[in-house]
Amino acid sequence: MGIFRKVLLFFGYLIFFSCSVSVRNSEDMGVLPDIFPDYINVTVPANIAPLNFCCRGTQSRGILLVEGRQDSIKVSSSGKFSIPRHKWQKLLEENKGGEIKLTVFTKNGDVWKKYKPFFIAIAPEPIDPYIAYRLIEPGYSAWDKMGIYQRDIAGYHESPVYENGVSNFNCVNCHSFCIQYPGQMLFHVRGGPNAGTILIKEGKTGKLNTKADTVHSPLVIRHGTLPVNILRFQLIKPVRFFMRITETGLRSSILSQMS
């Protein structure tokens, strides 16, 4: 082992030991930490990604101790606690049907403060490995850039299912899967020459003709979960509203009528 590596290890052990001693002698606050997102006393599946969070109202150094039946994880932070994925998954797997204990320490000046521990229950059942959603800016002024994406629940990897850049930046929405089966899905494209209901089935893509002479528009919103060969839609003429607060109270105004 080289002298440089020995020096690094020595200082690493020194820092870890000094932090451990300081934390053990910390001031007990007697209150729960103010964390965001708020994961205090929730129940999660055993295959969920690490529940990283930050402490509100503090910019100081922090330490998070996560304890299970056998093992524990110690995470340092200067603003956000980022829990290593592999250690987190191992800890959740070991504590299925039980709970884990999380204790937050923060340093204010030379004094460490200990917050009241909170618990996260671990369900024995796993959750579906992926979630699909439409991703859009939180405002209508930039709605032209959007898409339907999927994310790995066990991690943070996100990948596109459909991005509206391939269809002249029009609106895409109302996506739905057939009884949660990813091999068969549909979504609606609104506006422009590509408008319509798109069906994806076993790798093949097509557009459904849902216009009929007896109705005022094509079918709009997919509704409910039905058997494989049946589709059910709502036939509506949507109008967007904005609510605003004025000096005289709450008022509504029509923004636009959607096609």
For the structure shown, list the relevant keywords:
single chain, 259 residues, mainly beta, 2 domains, seven-stranded mixed beta sheet, four-stranded antiparallel beta sheet, 2 helices, 44% strand, disordered C terminus
Radius of gyration: 26 Å
**Uncertain segments:** 5-21, 254-259
Percent range for β-strand residues? 35-45%
Helix content: 10-25%
CATH architecture of the largest domain: Sandwich
The level-1 CATH class of the largest domain: Mainly Beta
Distance between the termini: 71 Å
Structure, described:
The protein is mainly beta and 259 residues long. The protein has 2 domains: 3-123, Immunoglobulin-like (Sandwich); 130-232, no CATH class. 12% of the residues lie in helices and 44% in strands. It is built from 2 helices and 21 strands. The protein starts with a helix and ends with a strand.
